Write the structure tokens for this entry.
Amino acid sequence: MIFSCVAAQQSRPGLPFWIPTTILYSAMDAKRPNERPTTFFARNPVFRHEEFLAAHAGDGSRSEHTTSNVLAQHVKTGRLLRVRRGLYAVVNREEERGRAVVDPYLLAAKLAPDSVVAYHSALEFHGKAYSVRSRVTYLARTRGRSFRFQGTDFVPVQFPAPLQDLPDAGGGVIEVDRAGGTVRVTSLERTLVDVLDMPKHGGGLEEIWRSLESIEYVDIDAVTEYALMLGTSLTVARVGFYLDQHRDQLMLDEKHLAPLRRHAPSRPLYIERRREPGKLVAGWNLIVPERVLSRSWEEFAG
């Protein structure tokens, strides 16, 4: 069963600690009439123009033109940093505008109305990535353009086609409080499937394997349901093979793998699109390179 939850993250980097909470607060949810800009800024370190419009002119007594002028004035005084059209970050009182550092995950969460931090970036967010990169990948329904801000590349990826019309885009998304704002990010279960579905966004097989091996537990029902939802036998085989290879670590047995095995490819497929030579894993009809089978990763010199 795929589920969503609300959580708060411990501030210590790299050691996420999930604390369930009952209330998440956002400008779109609150819709307070004529909310003071300073109050809004205190609750929204990064925000979209339409969010401020909804809060500042909530009862309709202020025009969009007036609201835009208010934002422009705060940008001029240095209280706000205009990241790109329609997107703003609040500058703390103790910071100078030119030196203000915007949390990249909060920023990615606002790059589209339905942004979800995903793939390798979700692994980093959860503290499970083997390596850290100056790149944040996020999911959204609409097609977007990559851009660079404060040394980080922000890369949009459209939701997979089978999920586009689903109201929850396939589920498996959690909301996490971070640095005064809220980040929507894929759960570990969905992230496991996503990086195996699109390895290029997971950093390649070695990075994916090394990262996923730090995950000690997954909800196997959530993993299975989501993998089947994507509707590709190659993805199912990749997920099934990874789980099969790590069944002791994840405390799985054949009954957990059987639903995936029933949807394995009908003919042998390469685990990678580039067709690296390997051995056939008959149970999944998957051709896997020896380096993945043995997990004997080459270490880079220096």
Notes: The longest helix spans residues 64-77. The two ends are 45 Å apart (CA to CA).
